C-alpha cells in the first residue's frame, strides 16, 4: 500500500509553558532546567548572539546567525548561509522578512528552533522518568508529552548533577527519528546556555551550531525599521493559527508507484485572510512527479485563516508531504 504522511508546520507561533504531569518532582526538574536556559524570555538587558553553523542540505553549507534582542517583541535577526541572506524584524505585533530568494530553507527554521529550545515549551507533561548513563554522564531521562501535539512524545534527558538539558529525542514520522543535543553550557546573566547545539536526523547530524559570542549590547531602535520590499505579517500573543477546512491529499503518481519511488516534498505557502493560499514555493524535492502532484493539490487547499483576536491575518505555513511505500 502506498501512503502519504502530511505534516503542516506553522512558521511563526506563540508558545506557552504549562507544566502539569504525573510526577511533581520530575515536572519541577524540567521546569527549572527550561527556566535556566530561557535566554530570550527573562533577560533584563538587551543582548547580541552570534552563532556559526553548518547545515546539511544536499551538501554541507556554512552559515552565520546574528540576533540583536531587546525584548520578545523587539528584535532583529540575520541569517546568511551560502548565497542565502535573510533579515527578520519583530516590532510590536508586526513581523518583517526580507530575503534574496522566494523562500526560507527548512534548515534555517530548524536552526532557529534549535537555538530557542527552552522557549518553545508547549503544554509539557512528564509521564515517567528513568535513570541512565551516556558517555560516562549520569542522566535523568523524562518521557514528556505535549498536550496539543496529537500524542507526540519526547524523551528529554537532563544531566543528573547540573540539571541541564542534554538531549531531546522524538519521532517525527514513522521513519524519521530526531534528536537535539546541547553541550558545553556557560553562564550568562544568571542563566545557563549551551555553546554547542546539534540536530541529528536518523543518526546523521544535519545542523551543528556553535555560539561564537553572547554579550549584552545596546539596542539601536533603527534596526526595527523594515527594509525596502520586506514582507509584512502581524503576530499577537493570542494568535490562532490557520486551520485547514479543505485538505485533499495529493495522489501518489502512477510512475512513482510503478518504480517504487518515495520521498518528501516540502512546500512553503501563505494563507490569506479569506482562507485561500498563495506564494506556493517548493522548498524540498521528492522528485518531479511527486512534487508536481503536491503543488497542484495544495493550490486547492482552503483554511480558516489565522486570527489576532477576531481579526483574520495573513500567515505562513510549511507543508511536508511524505510519499512512502508501505
Could you write a compact summary of the structure shown?
By secondary structure, this protein is mainly beta. It is built from 4 helices and 21 strands.
CATH class of the largest domain: Mainly Beta
Spans where pLDDT lies below 50 across 5 or more residues: 12-21
| CATH topology label of the largest domain | outer membrane lipoprotein receptor (LolB), chain A
Write out the CATH superfamily name of the largest domain. Lipoprotein localisation LolA/LolB/LppX
Succession of helices and strands: EHEEEEEHEEEEEEEEEHEEHEEEE
Look at the structure and give the mean pLDDT. 87
Give the fraction of residues assigned to helices. 10-25%
Describe it for me?
- It is globular and about 55 Å long.
- The strands form 4 sheets. The protein has a 13-stranded antiparallel sheet with strand order 7-8-9-10-11-12-13-2-3-4-5-6-14, covered by helices on one side.
- It has 2 domains: 7-224, Clam (outer membrane lipoprotein receptor (LolB), chain A); 236-325, TonB (TolA/TonB C-terminal domain), CATH 3.30.2420.
- The chain has 4 helices and 21 strands.
- The protein starts with a strand and ends with a strand.
- With 326 residues, the chain is mainly beta.
Amino acid at each position: 500500500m502506498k501512503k502519504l504522511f502530511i505534516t503542516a508546520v506553522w512558521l511563526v507561533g506563540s508558545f506557552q509553558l504549562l507544566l502539569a504531569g504525573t510526577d511533581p518532582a520530575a515536572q519541577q526538574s524540567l521546569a527549572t532546567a527550561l527556566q535556566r536556559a530561557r535566554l530570550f524570555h527573562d533577560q533584563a538587558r538587551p543582548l547580541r548572539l552570534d552563532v556559526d553553523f553548518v547545515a546539511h542540505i544536499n551538501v554541507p553549507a556554512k552559515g552565520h546567525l546574528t540576533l540583536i534582542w531587546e525584548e520578545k517583541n523587539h528584535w532583529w535577526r540575520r541569517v546568511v548561509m551560502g548565497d542565502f541572506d535573510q533579515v527578520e524584524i519583530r516590532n510590536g505585533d508586526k513581523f518583517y522578512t526580507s530575503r534574496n530568494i522566494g523562500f526560507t530553507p527548512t534548515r534555517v527554521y530548524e536552526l532557529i528552533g534549535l537555538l530557542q529550545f527552552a522557549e518553545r515549551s508547549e503544554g509539557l507533561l512528564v509521564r515517567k522518568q528513568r535513570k541512565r548513563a551516556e558517555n560516562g554522564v549520569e542522566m535523568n531521562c523524562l518521557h514528556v508529552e505535549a498536550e496539543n501535539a496529537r500524542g507526540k512524545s519526547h524523551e528529554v534527558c537532563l544531566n543528573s548533577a547540573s540539571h541541564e538539558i542534554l538531549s531531546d529525542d522524538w519521532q517525527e514520522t514513522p521513519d524519521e527519528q530526531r534528536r537535539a543535543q546541547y553541550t558545553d553550557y556557560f553562564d550568562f546573566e544568571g542563566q545557563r546556555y549551551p555553546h554547542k547545539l546539534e540536530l541529528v536526523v536518523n543518526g546523521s547530524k544535519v545542523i551543528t551550531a556553535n555560539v561564537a559570542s553572547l554579550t549584552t549590547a545596546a539596542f539601536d531602535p533603527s534596526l526595527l525599521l523594515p527594509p525596502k520590499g520586506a514582507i509584512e505579517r502581524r503576530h499577537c500573543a493570542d494568535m490562532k493559527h490557520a486551520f485547514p477546512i479543505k485538505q485533499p491529499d495529493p495522489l501518489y503518481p502512477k510512475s512513482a508507484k510503478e518504480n517504487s519511488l518515495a520521498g518528501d516534498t516540502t512546500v512553503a505557502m501563505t494563507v490569506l485572510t479569506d482562507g485561500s493560499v498563495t506564494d506556493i514555493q517548493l522548498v524540498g524535492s521528492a522528485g518531479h512527479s511527486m512534487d508536481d502532484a503536491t503543488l497542484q493539490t495544495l493550490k486547492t487547499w482552503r483554511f480558516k485563516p489565522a486570527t489576532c483576536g477576531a481579526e483574520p491575518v495573513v500567515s505562513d505555513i510549511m507543508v511536508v508531504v511524505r510519499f512512502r511505500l508501505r
